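## retry 2 of 3
previous attempt timed out at serialization; input unchanged, resubmitting
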Amino acid sequence: MAQHLQCEERTVDGATVVALTGRLDIDTSPGLREVLLRHVKAGSAGLLVDMTGVEFIDSSGVATFIDAQLGLSTSGRGLVLFGLSPQTRDAFAMAKVTDVLTLAGDQQEALAAMVGETGTG
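## retry succeeded, writing output
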């Protein structure tokens, strides 16, 4: 039985927030990649990703965020992930990408980090 990933988009203090619920794996990461790359191409100032509802992430999910970060950083924009469970945070640590991606504890920290990354606010 295929697991699903739900993506809900909202705007908070002028920032785009993509809230995820479910499993982020090889089956669901292509859909998320489309959502994130749409924002990259649209010129979004930056993206915040609410990971509070993510139950599981594998390497394809981690790679999806690396791709989005690369697309945003080439034009001085940023990506901040927040609300990671200990297990989800461990997946990023094991992939050794915590120095490439910005991880924040909650939405308020993520908004502050976004201002620091993009130099806007």
